[in-house]
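On clarity, I found the account of how folds are encoded harder to follow than it need be. An entry of this sort, consisting of the sequence and the corresponding backbone structure tokens, reads as follows:
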Amino acid sequence: MLCSLFCLHFQPAIVLGFAGFITFLHYNDERRAVPRGQASSNSGCGCGSNTTVKGPIIGGPFTLMSTENKIVTENDFCGKWVLLYFGYSFSPDVGPEQLKMMSKAVDKLESKHNQKILPVFVTLDPQRDTPSHLHAYLKEFDSRILGLTGAASAMRQMAQEYRVYFKKVQEDGDDYLVDTSHNMYLMNPKMEIVRCFGVEYNPDELSQELLKEVTSVSQ
């Protein structure tokens, strides 16, 4: 189902207030990390090193907003290989490591193998991850990463289409964390999900797996 066009209604980014909350959020990130070669009980696709995702089971149309305040739909990705990561900028450990890995793997593919893959970050926390906030956040990792956000209803719709588990867990006051499986998908130029990756890859391993998928199409 196509997500309807939306208006941005965000609250200002919330400053994390104290060290105890950071420690608790770190614990939750570690708890939900999916080791390479194992399935995630929260992930619809069962992310793992050898997981292959076929057909229309995962994925679908979407309408979101980029960090440049431009409307982005699935049609903008047609004809491109896309590495799609679902996360949130307030993740203190797993999220940043995944973005670093994504950046290094994509850079290696392009520089050593002349293979281009578009890295895309889809937030599961649109309340805090506004376009301007995401732009500044992703710039710290790699300017090639396309950040996508939108209305909460649009994000929930896309998460449902892509079988991404996430849950907002309210803390004291306005503080909250996002419990999620940190899914990363490889999409082929036909907008089909061909691989689902867990969080325990290093950049070299991820780039090798991506290269296998990209080159297998041309063989």
